[in-house]
Each structure stands twice: as structure tokens, then as C-alpha cells.
Design goal:
Blueprint: H1 6-17, H2 27-38, E1 42-43, E2 46-47, H3 56-61, H4 78-83, H5 99-110, H6 147-152, H7 156-168, H8 178-189, H9 196-204, H10 210-219, H11 222-235, H12 254-266, H13 270-283, H14 288-292, H15 304-309, H16 315-337, H17 356-365, E3 370-376, H18 380-426, E4 439-440, E5 451-469, E6 471-473, E7 479-482, E8 487-493, E9 502-507, E10 520-538, E11 540-541, E12 546-547, E13 549-550, E14 552-556, E15 568-571, H19 600-617, H20 620-642, E16 647-653, E17 675-677, E18 685-688, H21 712-724, H22 729-744, H23 765-777, H24 782-790, H25 803-806, H26 813-816, E19 829-830, H27 833-843, E20 860-862, E21 869-871, H28 898-902, H29 921-929, H30 931-947, H31 951-963, H32 969-982, H33 984-991, H34 995-998, E22 999-1000
Antiparallel strand pairs: 1-2, 3-16, 4-13, 5-10, 5-14, 5-15, 6-7, 8-9, 8-10, 11-12, 17-18, 19-22, 20-21
Length: about 1000
């Protein structure tokens, strides 16, 4: 222990004796010292040395080294020893206490260590909020420039850039030529190369406004949304599989992707774009965008095992759900405010003024939310009715369980014995006495709507025959053959997606007579398949709509064994209203006429005995309630079946599930209780918290004004409003910084996801704030922001250093600003993986411009019991379904696409603010030898050969299509020789491997 000298003790004692009378004024100063310098380590939850300084009782209790103070005796108090002297033992971190602070502690002890009884000290060691990104936004005035400099500027952006260049002794570069500009603009704004005709027209256009008109035309292109949605999806870590151990596919994630594309093309005001993604269902009810946008909340990875296989009452279930909310919080704050917040789940943020309690209050915002499929309709009335019917079904099902339990209790052993006997008899009863009718698709408005249902035999098997059977139902007097299709085919495949298949039965040419319930058997030469798919190409009439129903589908091997019994069944869609209609009925062996030699009479007798028993011992009102409950359940199922099938999106939603993944829907969306977790440990909950946002913004508090009876949606809406408010400076700085980065190649704050103290400082802080205010106080139009940036002289500079300009400068920027931080030229950039792939498709003449809808798969999926395997090497690059833009590619987390990954595609398990831009031999080999690139080279050659057979013209067209220019004389000669010696396809392949194809100047 370091001791103060006797002389120091005497001086301190003499000083404090005169201050005893002012005891009531000593505590505030000491409390401030303790909170700022001591409580971080010495608090009730974390007592370093066994000592807490949060309350007077804690202090007087002392620690491992004994009593900390003796009230009224500063000289005898160990605490004073620890903080005094030239080399004090405390504080462990930071500078030592000042002489004034030591004197304040001494005066307080001398005064008897007064401490208000109710006062508990807090840890206030956080970094202060006087940080550039947290400060209130104010609009800077553009710098004043000389007349010469003003001639270079096209808008205020240039004034900020040029002023900074002059400070550094730099000068801007000349404007790029028109061919470079059109290629730059096309890839920046729509992610595709210009056609030769478009490039030529722009180069020759004498209109002084030709550039501005081109910008406007590209911003109005539907391809703009496809291009810029990819940037947004990187940031929110959108993927179409769950990740983790069982990386199951998310078949309904794509509507969120389409929402982002649509919202960008519509140029929604940024506030609405933000609010829809957090609370569109609350703030913009009865809109499709308001539902589909909630895919933002569910965009990240999800632990299938931790949620679907482990209940949230178990420790692993608690951990999984805690991490799930952590991802939602980090995605919301990181995306819209560019702050890292995950550190605060264990303690106060070590670098930024984010309290641990703030973190958990943000978790409370999402306390009722899960990631799950959410149904919705385009028609609000249908949407409301569908939701009401599903809610009624859940309530009736729960009531039925209660009634059944009551009846079972009243019936006792006698009823149990009868039920067992009836169940046994039903196994051999005529199908007419069984409720398991078969499979039933969703309803369709037109007969020519395709519907399919398929079975998985588990592995590829030899098959020799099929039997399929129609259903029986008295609905609409259809009777035997209810729902049997007018035209259909049956196929076999080893591919679950049936991209390749063998046709086993083809009844698609003419309308067929309904076979009723007579089993239809087809035999054929032995074939091999794992999956059998029954596809209706023309549906049966139900009433005023159409559907597919099938009682049984059996598959026989050469020995006559039904190898489809109990197999896994999937379908395009289905009505699951068991026991009558469900997918599993298709392979249960139960269908009309299946068991004629059974004792149905015995079953009738048993059923009659049961009814007599119930009449004798069960109160009439209980029986009536049970029958009425079943009647209502049946009525709800029928009405649901009549409604237009709902759309489905994988989104953040109140989930009503069963089993382990039950959600909060059963409790009407009542939010889970959220507690501050000591050191982030779910086993160590402390105080409960209410929803709120961050408290670190100087002029924008994070408290929410929520009514006592608020819904979970009100919490999300409150957070959306807090983020979207004009008083939140982070929101506006964040978005303009991101857009600037994607245009310029380097952000003003080059850590776009971290505006805190561990991030980088802005290179042009005044420009950042000017852009933020301009965007916030204008139309909040992203297209206006694009237009502002790309029409600046800064953006239009050439990327190559200009020798003539450099000779006039005393300070050579190539030496002092090699990274081009101050933008003395434009940055030459490598194209992203998607742009390279899309450009190859377009140049080859194979790009399918179809927008929206389910994603295409560039893999074959093998789905064993544990987890699926995504096998890219089995995919055929000639498959036209995969020739769509890369934004529509099915994004897998666990097994990324090798070709795209090699080209630095974003990892969908991470929130990617800026992609790697690497150069490697592996990339060169992939561009040269990958099956996709070889295939596109062949199609490129076919396109060229159809246009011209003359070698020199072929070379010209190759260059004009691939790099938007004419070949040089040496290139013309070299490629002509190459075509003669190695063929046109290899010449096209070489063109797709030019640096110029993969880079933009």
C-alpha cells in the first residue's frame, strides 16, 4: 500500500477540521468522483477487491483489505491512502486523482461521510457524448472560392472538395471523356454496361444537357432498384437460409428483397422507407409494403435448433432468443444509425456513451417478435378476415382440448377403453368410416393454374409402377373423384426442384374423364428416381374456383412393394385441415375401396356404445359445447379454403406456433419480460426494463411515451419514429455517407457501420453535414441524392492521374495522398461480383430481364434429415432459369456460391458495409475457367457469329459489347489472329477476361 506522508496527513486534517460545519455540501463532489472514476470497478455487481462504492452501506462494509473509511477520521481511512501520494494504487485505469479531488474526499470523510439514504451511485465512466457523430446537425455554408475555382464547380459538393484540395496544395483532375462517363454511370446507377448504340449516341450527342438527361433516364430505369437494392441487402445481411447448424432454406424471404427494389424505384421518402421496415404493419396498415418490409427484422441468421428444437424455458432456448433479439437490435441501430451496440449486452460500451441498460431497453422493443412466415393479402378486407379466422381456429382448438380433457375425465376408464377399441377397429374399417380423405391444394381462380404435390422416397430407388386414387367428398355434389385434375402428368427425378426429370405418366394433351375413386395403376420399364411429382396442368372445378385433390399416391418397386408408404410429402401449396385434408394423407394407405374385407359393423357398434356412454355420464351442455366447437372449427376451415390463398413473407412477426417454437401469439403478442443481464449472462437477470432507445444523443432523448395498454407494434413504431426524427443526427449522416461511398468508392467516414470512437473520423466533416441536412430537409429522395453526387465535377473527374496538372503542383498527391482521400481524381473501381456476372449475361445476349418473384437457384439441393447440402457443382450454367440478374439469386449462408465468393461477394451472415476489393490469381482463374464464364463465352460467340462472319468486324463487335469502345489497331490485329488460331469462342472468352471488362474508370 502506498502511504501519504505524515506532513500530508496533518495538512489534510487541518484543512478538513475547518470544513466539518459544511458537511451537507461535501457529498455531491465525492459522488461525482466515485461515479466517474471508481464505480466502474467497485459496484454491487462487480466488486473488485470485494469493495462496492454504490451505497454508504457498501462502503462501510469494506472489502477484502478491511474497512475502507472511518467516518470523521480521514487520516485513519484506507480509502484515502489508496488514492493519495505520487504513485497512488487507485484508480487502476486512467490518470490519478487530482489534489483537489483527494482533498474533496478528505473533507467528506472528516464531515462524517454524509450520504443520502436513498442515493445509489451509478457508473458514469462512459465516454462523453461530445463526439462528432452525436452532435446536433447544423448546415455548414459551402466554402468561398476564387472566381477561377468557381468555374470548376457544378454544385456545392465541389466547393467543399475543392477547398480541401487547396488546403492540401492539390488540384482536381480534368473531366473524364464521355465513353468513360457513360460506362461509369451505367454501372453505378443500374449495374449493367451500356449497349454499343447507347454509348455511341451519348458520345455524339451535341446537347449540353446530355449528361444530365442520361442521369435522369438511368434513375428512372427499373434496373436502378435492382442495382441499389443489392447495396442495402448487404448492409442488412439478407439471406435466404437460416444459417447455423441446420441451414434450412427460407422459401418466403424473397418478398422483402422485392420490396426494397420496389421502394427504391418508387423513390420513397427515406423516413417512410425506414419506418416501413421496422413497423410498416402499424404505421401503414393494410398495405403490402407495410408487411413485406418487415423482412428487414428477420433478414439475419436464425438458430433453427435453438428455436424449433429447444423451448425458451430451457437455457439453450433462452440463449438462442437473446441472440436473436441482439441481431434485431444490432441490425436496426447499425443500419440506420451506424453505431456498434452489441458490446453493451455485457457492460456499458467501452468506447461510446451507450449504457448497458439502453441496450436491453432496445431489446424490449422486439420482445414479442420472432422470425417466421407471415401471411397477408393484397385486399385489406380479405387480410382481416383471414387473420380473424385463423385466430378463431386457434381459440377453438384450445377450447376443444379443454373440452376433450373434461370429457375424458368424466368418462373415466370405460371411455378410455372404448376409444382404444374404436382406434383399433378403424385401422381395418371401410374408408367411408375414416376421416382421412387425402391431399387438397389451395384454391385457384383459373383452371389452367398448375398445382403439384410430390413425395420423397428418401433415396434414389428403382420403380416399376404407380397407383393414384381420386378422393371422395360430397361437397357441391362432386362425390367420387372430387378434385381429380382434368389434365396432369407424373414425373420422377433425383432433383427435388425437377429441373431435370423423367415423365412417367403424361395426360396433358386432352381432357380426361373423371375416374372417380377407382385406383389407376400404370406399369413401365424399371426407372430410377428419388422424387415423384404429380402435376395438375388443368384443375378440376370445385364450385366457382378450381383445385387439385388426390386420395393416394403409391410407388412400387419391381417386387411389388409400395415404397412410398409414409414418405415425406411436399407441395406447391396445400390446405392443412386434418384429419380430413393434409399432405400426409397422400401416403397413408387410406383411400376409398382400400379395405373392403373389414368389420365396419363392429366399428359402428363401438361408436354407438360410445355415444350411449357420453349420453349417460356427460352433461348435455358439455356434449353440446363439444359438438358446437367442432361445427365451428369445420366452418372456419371451409371458409378459409374459400378465401384467396394468402401471400407469405418471412418477416419479423408475432408468431403463433406450437411445440418448442411457440412464440407469443398464444398470449396475444404480449411481450416477453426483458431484464438487464449481468455480464450478458441469461442465468443472471437483474432489473426489468421497459422499451426505449439510446440516451446518448445530446438533444434527442431516447424515452418512449407509450400508453399502459400499448401493443408490441407500438414499441416498434416508437423506435421507428425515434430513428426517423429530424433531431436524430446519426440517421441522416449514416445514409448520405453510405450513398457517397457506393458512388465514390470510399466513404467520407470510411467505417460506414461505425460512427463511434473506434471508427474513422470523417475526411470531409462539413461536406457530410451539408449533405445530411440537404437530404433531411429536402424531399428525402435517394434519387435526388444520387443526382446531386453524380452531376458534380468531383464525380466526373478522370481516374488516371493527370500529368499536366501534377506538374503545376508543389505537393504531389501521388506521394502524400496515395489513397485519394481528398479526391484529387476519381477512384478506379473493380466491379462487384454481381455486376461482373450480369455484364457477362448481357454481353452474351442471355440476360433475362424478368423482375421479382422467387429466387432462382444456381445449385442442386440435397436435403438429408439433418441439414441440406447446396451443391453448386451440379448446376447447369445453361439453365435459362438462372440467367436472371444476380439480385434474384438464392442466397445461401452456410455454403456460399464459390464463383461469386471468389469475386468478393458479401457474406450474408455478416452486416457488410463495404465489400473486400481483392485482386488474386484465384479470381483470374475463375474468370477464365469457371463453367458459367465458359458457357457465356460460347453464347457471346454465337451472338457475334449471327451478326457478322468477317473477322475484323467480329473483333470490333466483341470490344464494343464488352468494353464499350472500338479496339485499337494492335488489338484488332491480335484478336483477328487469335480468332483464326483458337476460334471465336476463345476470343470472346479472352475479352471477358480483360481488366477493362471487370473495372470501371
Amino acid at each position: 500500500m502506498v502511504s501519504i506522508t505524515t506532513f500530508q496527513r496533518v495538512c489534510l486534517l487541518l484543512l478538513t477540521v475547518t470544513q466539518v460545519q459544511a458537511a451537507d455540501t461535501t457529498f455531491p463532489a465525492v459522488a461525482a468522483i466515485f461515479e466517474r472514476r471508481c464505480v466502474e470497478c467497485h459496484q454491487a455487481d462487480e466488486k473488485k477487491g470485494g469493495l462496492s462504492l454504490q451505497s454508504r452501506a457498501d462502503l462501510l462494509a469494506g472489502g477484502e483489505s478491511g474497512v475502507a473509511i472511518e467516518a470523521g477520521k480521514p487520516a485513519a481511512s484506507m480509502l484515502l491512502d489508496m488514492v493519495s501520494g505520487d504513485k497512488p494504487a487507485m484508480p487502476k485505469k486512467g490518470s490519478k486523482l487530482t489534489a483537489d479531488e483527494v482533498a474533496a474526499i478528505s473533507r467528506w470523510i472528516a464531515a462524517g461521510a454524509p450520504w443520502p439514504a436513498e442515493r445509489k451511485l451509478e457508473d458514469r465512466s462512459l465516454a462523453d457524448n461530445n463526439w462528432w457523430s452525436l452532435r446536433t446537425l447544423a448546415r455548414p455554408e459551402p466554402p468561398q472560392l476564387t472566381a477561377v475555382d468557381r468555374a470548376w464547380t457544378k454544385n456545392p459538393i465541389d466547393a467543399f472538395i475543392l477547398a480541401k484540395l487547396r488546403e492540401q496544395g492539390f488540384a482536381p483532375s480534368p473531366q473524364a471523356d464521355r465513353r468513360a462517363l457513360i460506362r461509369r454511370l451505367y454501372f453505378d446507377l443500374i449495374g449493367l454496361p451500356p449497349s454499343p448504340e447507347e454509348a455511341d449516341a451519348f458520345v455524339r450527342d451535341p446537347d449540353p444537357q446530355a449528361y444530365e438527361k442520361l442521369v435522369n433516364r438511368l434513375l428512372e430505369s427499373p434496373h436502378y432498384g435492382e442495382r441499389w437494392a443489392r447495396h442495402w441487402l448487404d448492409v442488412v445481411h439478407f439471406g435466404e437460409t437460416h444459417g447455423y447448424d441446420k441451414d434450412q432454406p427460407r422459401r418466403n424471404a424473397w418478398p422483402y428483397r422485392d420490396y426494397v427494389i420496389r421502394a427504391l424505384n418508387q423513390d420513397k421518402p427515406y423516413v417512410r422507407f425506414l419506418e416501413e421496415q421496422l413497423a410498416g404493419d402499424v404505421l401503414y396498415p393494410n398495405t403490402i409494403d407495410g408487411i413485406e418490409a418487415l423482412g428487414f427484422i428477420s433478414a439475419g441468421p436464425w438458430d433453427f435448433i435453438g428455436h424449433a428444437e429447444v423451448p425458451e424455458t430451457k437455457l439453450d432456448g433462452k440463449v438462442a432468443r437473446h441472440l436473436d433479439r441482439d441481431d434485431m437490435v444490432s441490425n436496426a441501430i447499425g443500419t440506420f444509425n451506424s453505431l456498434t451496440i452489441g458490446c453493451a449486452q455485457c457492460h456499458n460500451h467501452k468506447f461510446d456513451p451507450i449504457k448497458q441498460v439502453d441496450y436491453y431497453r432496445l431489446q424490449a422493443v422486439f420482445a414479442a417478435v420472432d422470425r417466421a412466415d407471415r401471411k397477408y393479402h393484397a385486399d385489406p378486407a380479405v387480410m382481416d378476415r383471414y387473420a380473424a379466422l385463423e385466430r378463431e381456429q386457434r381459440e377453438l382448438t384450445e377450447a376443444k382440448k379443454t373440452l376433450d380433457a373434461k370429457i375424458k375425465q368424466l368418462g373415466g376408464a370405460e371411455l378410455t377403453a372404448l376409444d382404444q377399441a374404436i382406434a383399433a377397429a378403424r385401422q381395418t374399417a371401410p374408408t367411408g368410416l375414416r376421416p382421412e380423405y387425402g391431399y387438397h391444394s389451395q384454391l385457384a381462380p383459373k383452371a389452367d393454374t398448375e398445382k403439384w404435390v410430390q413425395i420423397d422416397l428418401g433415396e434414389s430407388r428403382e420403380i416399376a409402377a404407380l397407383t393414384y386414387v381420386g378422393c371422395y367428398d360430397n361437397f357441391n355434389q362432386i362425390g367420387a373423384g372430387f378434385g381429380f385434375p382434368v389434365r396432369f402428368r407424373i414425373e420422377g427425378s433425383d432433383d427435388a426442384t425437377f429441373k431435370t426429370s423423367k415423365v412417367l405418366v403424361d395426360q396433358t394433351a386432352n381432357d380426361l374423364a373423371n375416374p372417380g375413386t377407382t385406383p389407376q395403376t400404370v406399369k413401365f420399364a424399371s426407372k430410377r428416381a428419388r422424387y415423384i411429382r404429380f402435376t395438375a396442368t388443368k384443375l378440376a372445378l370445385r364450385q366457382n374456383d378450381y383445385m387439385l385433390a388426390l386420395a393416394e399416391l403409391q410407388v412400387f418397386d419391381a417386387a411389388g412393394k409400395n415404397i412410398a408408404a409414409g414418405a415425406k410429402v411436399t407441395a406447391l401449396d396445400s390446405i392443412e385441415a386434418g384429419p380430413r385434408w393434409r399432405q400426409t394423407n397422400l401416403v397413408d394407405g387410406i383411400y376409398p375401396g382400400a379395405q373392403e374385407s373389414n368389420n365396419g359393423k363392429k366399428l359402428d357398434e363401438l361408436v354407438e356404445q360410445r355415444q350411449e356412454l357420453l349420453a349417460r355420464i356427460i352433461p348435455a351442455e358439455t356434449q353440446n359445447a363439444s359438438e358446437e366447437n367442432q361445427r365451428k372449427l369445420d366452418a372456419a376451415a371451409v371458409e378459409l379454403a374459400k378465401l384467396t390463398p394468402p401471400n407469405v413473407v418471412y418477416a419479423g412477426t408475432v408468431h403463433s406456433g406450437s411445440g418448442n417454437f411457440a412464440g407469443t401469439g398464444g398470449k396475444q403478442g404480449e411481450p416477453r419480460k426483458i431484464f438487464v443481464l449481468h455480464r450478458g449472462d441469461v442465468k443472471n437477470p437483474r432489473e426489468e426494463v421497459t422499451p426505449a432507445a439510446l440516451s446518448c444523443l445530446p438533444n434527442w432523448p431516447g424515452e418512449f411515451s407509450l400508453a399502459a395498454d400499448h401493443t408490441e407494434g407500438d414499441r416498434r413504431a416508437a423506435l421507428a419514429h425515434w430513428l426517423a426524427d429530424k433531431r436524430n443526427p446519426l440517421t441522416w449522416r449514416s445514409i448520405v455517407n453510405r450513398v457517397w461511398q457506393y458512388h465514390i468508392g470510399r466513404a467520407i467516414v470510411d467505417t460506414p457501420n461505425d460512427f463511434g470512437r473506434m471508427g474513422q473520423l470523417p475526411s470531409h466533416p462539413e461536406l457530410l453535414d451539408w449533405l445530411a441536412v440537404e437530404f433531411r430537409d429536402g424531399r428525402q429522395s435517394l434519387k435526388d441524392l444520387h443526382r446531386l453526387i453524380v452531376t458534380s465535377s468531383t464525380y466526373q473527374q478522370q481516374s488516371e492521374p493527370d500529368a499536366a496538372t501534377l506538374t503545376t503542383l508543389k505537393n504531389d498527391p501521388r506521394k502524400t495522398d496515395a489513397g485519394n482521400i481528398y479526391l484529387w481524381r476519381m477512384n478506379r473501381r473493380k466491379l462487384e461480383a454481381e455486376s461482373i456476372r450480369d455484364a457477362a449475361l448481357q454481353v452474351a445476349g442471355k440476360l433475362d430481364a424478368k423482375m421479382g418473384g422467387p429466387s432462382f437457384q444456381d445449385f442442386i439441393i440435397d436435403q438429408p434429415a439433418h441439414s441440406p447440402h447446396y451443391e453448386y457443382h451440379l448446376h447447369d450454367p445453361n439453365d435459362p432459369k438462372s440467367h436472371r440478374r444476380s439480385i434474384y439469386r438464392f442466397i445461401v449462408r452456410s455454403q456460399p456460391q464459390p464463383f461469386m465468393t471468389t469475386l468478393d461477394c458479401a457474406d450474408p451472415s455478416m452486416r457488410v458495409d463495404k465489400r473486400n476489393e481483392s485482386l488474386s490469381a484465384l479470381q483470374a482463374l475463375a474468370l477464365l475457367n469457371n463453367g458459367f464464364m465458359v458457357t457465356m463465352s460460347n453464347h457471346f460467340a454465337e451472338r457475334i457469329s449471327k451478326a457478322t462472319s468477317e473477322p475484323n468486324e467480329q473483333v470490333r463487335l466483341i470490344f464494343r459489347l464488352a468494353v464499350s469502345r472500338e479496339p485499337t489497331l494492335s488489338e484488332q490485329k491480335m484478336f483477328a489472329v487469335f480468332i483464326r488460331e483458337h476460334g471465336l469462342a476463345n476470343a470472346c472468352r479472352a475479352a471477358l477476361n480483360l481488366n477493362e471488362f471487370a473495372f470501371v474508370d
